[in-house]
Amino acid sequence: LSVLLLLGAHVSPLATASRSLDVTRSLLSSRGSVDVVTRLDHDRSSYTQGFLFGAAGSESSSPDAEVFYESAGGYGASDIRVSEVTSGSVLRRTALPSNVFAEGLSDAPGDPNRLLQLTWQAKLVYNRQRSTFELDDTIALVGGREGWGLTHDTSMFILSNGSEHLSFRDPDSFEETRSIVVRRSNGNVVRRLNELEYTHDGHVLCNVWTTNEIVRVDLSTGQVSDTYDMSALTAEARSAYANAEVLNGIAFDPATKRLWITGKHWPYVFQVLLENVNHNDPSAQVPSSSSSSSSSSSSSSSSSTSSSGSTSGPTTGLSSSSSRLLSLSRSATLMGCFLFSLLRMMVSLT
Question: Is the dihedral of CA 5, 332, 184, 26 positive or negative?
Fold first, then answer.
Protein backbone atom coordinates (compact mmCIF):
# COMPACT_ATOMS: atom_id res chain seq x y z
CA LEU A 1 0.00 0.00 0.00
CA SER A 2 2.81 2.41 0.87
CA VAL A 3 4.49 1.76 -2.47
CA LEU A 4 1.29 2.39 -4.39
CA LEU A 5 0.66 5.58 -2.44
CA LEU A 6 4.15 6.78 -3.25
CA LEU A 7 3.52 6.02 -6.93
CA GLY A 8 0.32 8.00 -6.82
CA ALA A 9 1.98 10.90 -5.05
CA HIS A 10 5.27 11.11 -6.92
CA VAL A 11 5.03 9.45 -10.36
CA SER A 12 3.19 12.15 -12.23
CA PRO A 13 2.48 11.82 -15.98
CA LEU A 14 4.36 15.06 -16.59
CA ALA A 15 7.47 13.91 -14.77
CA THR A 16 7.45 10.65 -16.69
CA ALA A 17 6.83 12.44 -19.97
CA SER A 18 9.75 14.81 -19.46
CA ARG A 19 12.08 11.82 -19.06
CA SER A 20 10.72 9.40 -21.66
CA LEU A 21 9.09 11.43 -24.42
CA ASP A 22 11.37 12.84 -27.07
CA VAL A 23 9.25 15.95 -27.42
CA THR A 24 9.73 19.43 -26.11
CA ARG A 25 6.75 19.35 -23.76
CA SER A 26 3.77 17.13 -23.11
CA LEU A 27 0.47 18.86 -22.43
CA LEU A 28 -1.54 16.16 -20.71
CA SER A 29 -5.19 16.70 -19.92
CA SER A 30 -8.43 14.86 -19.33
CA ARG A 31 -9.06 15.37 -23.05
CA GLY A 32 -7.01 14.35 -26.08
CA SER A 33 -3.31 14.64 -25.32
CA VAL A 34 -1.14 17.27 -26.99
CA ASP A 35 2.66 17.13 -27.34
CA VAL A 36 4.71 20.15 -28.36
CA VAL A 37 7.52 19.19 -30.75
CA THR A 38 9.00 22.61 -31.36
CA ARG A 39 8.23 26.33 -31.25
CA LEU A 40 8.79 28.65 -34.20
CA ASP A 41 8.61 32.40 -34.65
CA HIS A 42 5.47 33.99 -36.11
CA ASP A 43 4.78 37.53 -37.28
CA ARG A 44 2.75 38.87 -34.39
CA SER A 45 1.23 41.63 -36.52
CA SER A 46 -0.96 38.98 -38.21
CA TYR A 47 -4.56 38.70 -37.06
CA THR A 48 -4.56 35.08 -38.23
CA GLN A 49 -7.76 33.92 -39.91
CA GLY A 50 -6.56 31.16 -42.24
CA PHE A 51 -3.37 29.08 -42.05
CA LEU A 52 -2.01 26.71 -44.70
CA PHE A 53 1.20 24.71 -45.13
CA GLY A 54 3.17 24.81 -48.39
CA ALA A 55 5.85 22.21 -49.10
CA ALA A 56 9.36 23.12 -50.24
CA GLY A 57 9.27 24.26 -53.84
CA SER A 58 5.74 25.65 -53.65
CA GLU A 59 6.96 29.25 -53.37
CA SER A 60 9.06 30.66 -56.21
CA SER A 61 10.60 33.44 -54.10
CA SER A 62 12.04 30.83 -51.72
CA PRO A 63 12.12 27.58 -53.71
CA ASP A 64 13.95 25.46 -51.13
CA ALA A 65 11.97 26.57 -48.09
CA GLU A 66 8.81 25.19 -46.57
CA VAL A 67 6.26 27.97 -46.15
CA PHE A 68 2.99 28.94 -44.53
CA TYR A 69 0.28 30.76 -46.46
CA GLU A 70 -1.81 32.94 -44.21
CA SER A 71 -4.92 35.06 -44.41
CA ALA A 72 -4.74 37.98 -41.96
CA GLY A 73 -7.89 39.87 -40.96
CA GLY A 74 -8.91 43.30 -39.79
CA TYR A 75 -10.44 46.29 -41.58
CA GLY A 76 -7.60 48.21 -43.14
CA ALA A 77 -5.14 45.45 -42.18
CA SER A 78 -6.33 42.40 -44.12
CA ASP A 79 -3.92 40.67 -46.45
CA ILE A 80 -2.75 37.33 -47.82
CA ARG A 81 0.88 36.46 -47.13
CA VAL A 82 3.49 33.75 -47.34
CA SER A 83 6.22 33.22 -44.73
CA GLU A 84 9.06 30.78 -44.11
CA VAL A 85 8.26 28.00 -41.68
CA THR A 86 11.63 28.01 -39.94
CA SER A 87 12.21 31.75 -39.54
CA GLY A 88 8.72 33.25 -39.63
CA SER A 89 9.97 35.85 -42.13
CA VAL A 90 7.23 37.18 -44.39
CA LEU A 91 8.32 36.69 -48.01
CA ARG A 92 5.40 38.31 -49.80
CA ARG A 93 2.03 39.82 -49.04
CA THR A 94 -0.89 41.36 -50.90
CA ALA A 95 -3.27 43.76 -49.17
CA LEU A 96 -7.05 43.55 -49.45
CA PRO A 97 -9.33 46.61 -49.84
CA SER A 98 -9.64 48.54 -46.59
CA ASN A 99 -13.38 47.81 -46.35
CA VAL A 100 -12.89 44.02 -46.55
CA PHE A 101 -12.15 41.76 -43.58
CA ALA A 102 -10.24 38.62 -44.62
CA GLU A 103 -11.15 35.22 -43.21
CA GLY A 104 -10.27 31.56 -43.98
CA LEU A 105 -7.85 30.26 -46.62
CA SER A 106 -7.46 26.98 -48.50
CA ASP A 107 -5.97 25.56 -51.63
CA ALA A 108 -8.38 23.79 -53.99
CA PRO A 109 -9.15 20.06 -54.20
CA GLY A 110 -6.87 18.65 -56.87
CA ASP A 111 -5.37 22.05 -57.69
CA PRO A 112 -2.72 23.21 -55.19
CA ASN A 113 -1.85 26.19 -57.43
CA ARG A 114 -5.20 27.80 -56.65
CA LEU A 115 -5.96 29.55 -53.35
CA LEU A 116 -9.42 30.58 -52.15
CA GLN A 117 -9.62 33.31 -49.53
CA LEU A 118 -12.85 34.01 -47.65
CA THR A 119 -14.10 37.36 -46.46
CA TRP A 120 -16.32 38.04 -43.48
CA GLN A 121 -19.34 40.33 -43.95
CA ALA A 122 -18.48 41.21 -47.56
CA LYS A 123 -19.47 37.59 -48.40
CA LEU A 124 -16.91 37.39 -51.19
CA VAL A 125 -14.52 34.58 -52.04
CA TYR A 126 -11.25 35.55 -53.73
CA ASN A 127 -9.96 32.94 -56.19
CA ARG A 128 -6.20 33.53 -56.41
CA GLN A 129 -3.10 32.15 -58.08
CA ARG A 130 -0.81 30.72 -55.44
CA SER A 131 2.41 31.88 -57.09
CA THR A 132 1.46 35.56 -57.36
CA PHE A 133 -1.73 36.03 -55.25
CA GLU A 134 -3.22 37.55 -58.42
CA LEU A 135 -7.02 37.41 -58.54
CA ASP A 136 -8.49 35.14 -61.19
CA ASP A 137 -12.06 35.94 -60.17
CA THR A 138 -14.30 36.83 -57.23
CA ILE A 139 -17.15 34.53 -56.18
CA ALA A 140 -20.24 35.65 -54.26
CA LEU A 141 -20.81 33.62 -51.11
CA VAL A 142 -24.51 32.77 -51.32
CA GLY A 143 -26.71 31.46 -48.56
CA GLY A 144 -26.95 34.50 -46.29
CA ARG A 145 -24.12 33.47 -43.96
CA GLU A 146 -20.63 34.83 -43.42
CA GLY A 147 -17.36 33.15 -44.38
CA TRP A 148 -15.21 32.05 -41.43
CA GLY A 149 -13.01 28.96 -41.91
CA LEU A 150 -12.13 27.03 -45.06
CA THR A 151 -10.45 23.72 -45.93
CA HIS A 152 -11.13 20.85 -48.34
CA ASP A 153 -11.27 17.06 -48.42
CA THR A 154 -10.46 15.03 -51.54
CA SER A 155 -13.28 16.52 -53.61
CA MET A 156 -15.09 19.38 -51.85
CA PHE A 157 -14.39 22.64 -50.06
CA ILE A 158 -15.57 22.66 -46.43
CA LEU A 159 -16.67 25.99 -44.96
CA SER A 160 -17.60 27.21 -41.48
CA ASN A 161 -19.69 30.29 -40.82
CA GLY A 162 -19.56 30.70 -37.04
CA SER A 163 -22.48 28.37 -36.41
CA GLU A 164 -22.61 24.63 -35.69
CA HIS A 165 -22.79 23.83 -39.41
CA LEU A 166 -20.06 22.74 -41.80
CA SER A 167 -20.95 23.39 -45.45
CA PHE A 168 -19.58 21.28 -48.32
CA ARG A 169 -19.00 23.34 -51.47
CA ASP A 170 -18.49 22.43 -55.11
CA PRO A 171 -14.84 23.14 -56.10
CA ASP A 172 -15.85 24.94 -59.32
CA SER A 173 -19.09 26.81 -58.56
CA PHE A 174 -18.60 27.02 -54.77
CA GLU A 175 -22.29 26.19 -54.37
CA GLU A 176 -23.34 24.19 -51.32
CA THR A 177 -23.91 20.47 -51.96
CA ARG A 178 -24.64 19.36 -48.37
CA SER A 179 -24.02 20.32 -44.76
CA ILE A 180 -23.55 18.62 -41.40
CA VAL A 181 -24.25 19.69 -37.83
CA VAL A 182 -21.35 19.23 -35.41
CA ARG A 183 -22.33 17.63 -32.10
CA ARG A 184 -20.57 16.36 -29.00
CA SER A 185 -21.14 12.84 -27.67
CA ASN A 186 -23.89 14.17 -25.35
CA GLY A 187 -25.80 15.53 -28.35
CA ASN A 188 -25.00 19.20 -27.73
CA VAL A 189 -24.14 21.20 -30.83
CA VAL A 190 -20.77 22.95 -31.12
CA ARG A 191 -21.27 26.54 -32.25
CA ARG A 192 -18.75 29.19 -33.34
CA LEU A 193 -16.76 26.78 -35.50
CA ASN A 194 -13.98 28.85 -37.07
CA GLU A 195 -10.61 27.90 -38.58
CA LEU A 196 -10.61 24.43 -40.21
CA GLU A 197 -8.01 21.88 -41.30
CA TYR A 198 -8.65 18.55 -43.03
CA THR A 199 -6.31 15.80 -41.77
CA HIS A 200 -6.79 13.33 -44.64
CA ASP A 201 -8.39 10.67 -42.47
CA GLY A 202 -12.07 11.51 -42.86
CA HIS A 203 -11.87 14.11 -40.09
CA VAL A 204 -11.48 17.86 -39.84
CA LEU A 205 -9.94 19.85 -36.99
CA CYS A 206 -12.07 22.85 -36.00
CA ASN A 207 -11.06 25.75 -33.81
CA VAL A 208 -13.95 26.87 -31.58
CA TRP A 209 -13.85 30.67 -31.61
CA THR A 210 -13.08 32.50 -28.30
CA THR A 211 -12.09 29.20 -26.65
CA ASN A 212 -8.87 27.22 -26.35
CA GLU A 213 -10.55 24.17 -27.86
CA ILE A 214 -9.87 22.34 -31.08
CA VAL A 215 -12.41 19.63 -31.87
CA ARG A 216 -11.84 16.71 -34.25
CA VAL A 217 -14.98 16.05 -36.28
CA ASP A 218 -15.99 12.94 -38.22
CA LEU A 219 -17.14 14.32 -41.57
CA SER A 220 -19.47 11.38 -42.21
CA THR A 221 -21.54 12.01 -39.08
CA GLY A 222 -20.67 15.44 -37.67
CA GLN A 223 -19.73 13.75 -34.39
CA VAL A 224 -16.88 15.19 -32.28
CA SER A 225 -14.46 12.32 -31.74
CA ASP A 226 -11.74 14.20 -29.82
CA THR A 227 -11.32 17.53 -28.04
CA TYR A 228 -7.92 19.19 -27.50
CA ASP A 229 -7.25 21.91 -24.93
CA MET A 230 -4.65 24.46 -26.09
CA SER A 231 -4.81 26.68 -22.99
CA ALA A 232 -1.10 26.29 -22.25
CA LEU A 233 -0.12 27.42 -25.73
CA THR A 234 -2.39 30.46 -25.52
CA ALA A 235 -0.88 31.33 -22.14
CA GLU A 236 2.65 31.02 -23.51
CA ALA A 237 1.85 33.27 -26.46
CA ARG A 238 0.31 35.89 -24.16
CA SER A 239 3.22 35.75 -21.74
CA ALA A 240 5.54 36.65 -24.62
CA TYR A 241 3.27 39.28 -26.18
CA ALA A 242 0.56 41.04 -24.19
CA ASN A 243 -1.58 41.72 -27.28
CA ALA A 244 -1.76 38.07 -28.34
CA GLU A 245 -5.41 37.09 -28.74
CA VAL A 246 -7.32 33.84 -29.24
CA LEU A 247 -6.23 30.56 -30.75
CA ASN A 248 -6.98 30.53 -34.49
CA GLY A 249 -4.67 28.80 -36.93
CA ILE A 250 -4.21 25.14 -37.89
CA ALA A 251 -1.91 23.90 -40.66
CA PHE A 252 -1.25 20.28 -41.69
CA ASP A 253 1.26 18.61 -43.97
CA PRO A 254 -0.37 15.44 -45.35
CA ALA A 255 2.97 14.08 -46.61
CA THR A 256 4.61 13.97 -43.18
CA LYS A 257 1.58 14.32 -40.87
CA ARG A 258 3.15 17.36 -39.21
CA LEU A 259 0.71 19.78 -37.61
CA TRP A 260 1.13 23.40 -36.52
CA ILE A 261 -0.96 25.66 -34.27
CA THR A 262 -0.98 29.46 -33.93
CA GLY A 263 -3.37 32.30 -33.12
CA LYS A 264 -4.32 35.92 -33.67
CA HIS A 265 -1.28 38.14 -33.04
CA TRP A 266 0.65 35.18 -31.63
CA PRO A 267 4.45 35.53 -31.67
CA TYR A 268 4.80 31.76 -32.07
CA VAL A 269 3.77 28.80 -34.18
CA PHE A 270 3.82 25.47 -32.31
CA GLN A 271 4.42 22.16 -34.04
CA VAL A 272 2.32 19.62 -32.15
CA LEU A 273 1.32 15.99 -31.95
CA LEU A 274 -2.36 15.31 -31.30
CA GLU A 275 -3.73 12.06 -29.98
CA ASN A 276 -5.51 10.09 -32.76
CA VAL A 277 -4.20 12.46 -35.46
CA ASN A 278 -0.41 12.24 -35.76
CA HIS A 279 0.70 11.17 -32.28
CA ASN A 280 2.26 7.86 -33.31
CA ASP A 281 3.49 8.81 -36.78
CA PRO A 282 7.32 8.94 -36.74
CA SER A 283 7.56 11.43 -39.62
CA ALA A 284 5.34 13.90 -37.76
CA GLN A 285 7.64 14.01 -34.75
CA VAL A 286 10.86 15.33 -36.25
CA PRO A 287 11.24 19.01 -37.22
CA SER A 288 12.56 19.41 -40.76
CA SER A 289 16.36 19.27 -40.99
CA SER A 290 16.54 22.97 -41.84
CA SER A 291 14.47 24.06 -38.83
CA SER A 292 15.71 25.09 -35.43
CA SER A 293 13.84 24.57 -32.21
CA SER A 294 13.33 27.40 -29.78
CA SER A 295 13.41 26.53 -26.11
CA SER A 296 11.12 27.90 -23.48
CA SER A 297 12.05 28.19 -19.83
CA SER A 298 8.52 28.89 -18.70
CA SER A 299 5.71 26.43 -18.06
CA SER A 300 1.99 27.07 -18.27
CA SER A 301 -1.05 25.34 -16.87
CA SER A 302 -4.84 25.53 -16.92
CA SER A 303 -7.62 23.65 -15.22
CA SER A 304 -7.30 20.71 -17.59
CA THR A 305 -3.93 21.13 -19.33
CA SER A 306 -0.40 21.26 -17.92
CA SER A 307 2.95 21.99 -19.52
CA SER A 308 6.24 20.64 -18.26
CA GLY A 309 9.49 22.56 -18.65
CA SER A 310 10.76 22.55 -22.22
CA THR A 311 14.06 21.38 -23.53
CA SER A 312 15.93 22.98 -26.35
CA GLY A 313 17.07 21.50 -29.63
CA PRO A 314 15.41 19.43 -32.35
CA THR A 315 13.44 16.49 -31.06
CA THR A 316 12.65 13.02 -32.28
CA GLY A 317 9.39 11.34 -31.44
CA LEU A 318 7.05 9.35 -29.25
CA SER A 319 8.08 5.68 -29.11
CA SER A 320 5.62 2.89 -28.36
CA SER A 321 7.49 2.06 -25.15
CA SER A 322 7.16 5.71 -24.05
CA SER A 323 3.44 5.57 -24.77
CA ARG A 324 3.09 2.46 -22.61
CA LEU A 325 5.14 4.03 -19.82
CA LEU A 326 3.00 7.16 -19.95
CA SER A 327 -0.19 5.07 -19.75
CA LEU A 328 1.20 3.11 -16.80
CA SER A 329 2.14 6.30 -14.96
CA ARG A 330 -1.36 7.71 -15.46
CA SER A 331 -2.86 4.46 -14.14
CA ALA A 332 -0.51 4.50 -11.15
CA THR A 333 -1.49 8.10 -10.40
CA LEU A 334 -5.19 7.27 -10.47
CA MET A 335 -4.69 4.14 -8.36
CA GLY A 336 -2.61 6.06 -5.82
CA CYS A 337 -5.24 8.78 -5.53
CA PHE A 338 -7.98 6.15 -5.07
CA LEU A 339 -6.07 4.25 -2.39
CA PHE A 340 -5.15 7.47 -0.60
CA SER A 341 -8.83 8.48 -0.48
CA LEU A 342 -9.76 4.99 0.74
CA LEU A 343 -7.12 5.14 3.48
CA ARG A 344 -8.37 8.55 4.65
CA MET A 345 -11.91 7.21 4.80
CA MET A 346 -10.75 4.18 6.88
CA VAL A 347 -8.86 6.41 9.28
CA SER A 348 -11.89 8.67 9.74
CA LEU A 349 -14.07 5.63 10.50
CA THR A 350 -11.67 4.43 13.19
Answer: positive
The size of the chain, in residues, is: 350
**Rg of the chain (C-alpha set):** 21
66 three-class SS: coil
Residue 186 predicted with pLDDT over 60: yes
Give tens-digit pLDDT for 232-266: 999 999 999 999 999 999 999 999 999 999 999 99
Question: Measured between alpha carbons, how far is residue 30 from residues 104, 240, 333 in Å?
Answer: 30, 26, 13
Per-residue exposure over 272-293, b if at least 16 CB sit within 10 Å of its own CB, e if not: bbbbebbbbeeebbbbbeebeb
Is pLDDT of 78 > 90?
A: yes
DSSP states along 140-180 = E--SS-----EEE-SS-EEEE-SSSEEEEE-TTT--EEEEE
Q: What share of the chain is helix, strand, coil (3-state, %, to 5)?
A: 15, 40, 45
How would you write 224-288 as a 3-class SS string? EEEEEECHHHHHHHHHHCCCCCCEEEEEEECCCCEEEEEECCCCEEEEEEECCCCCCCHHHHCCC
Spatial distance between the Cα atoms of 93 and 107, rounded to a whole number of angstroms = 17
3 state SS of 349: helix
CB within 8 Å of 246: residues ≥ 6 apart: 209, 210, 211, 212, 234, 263, 264
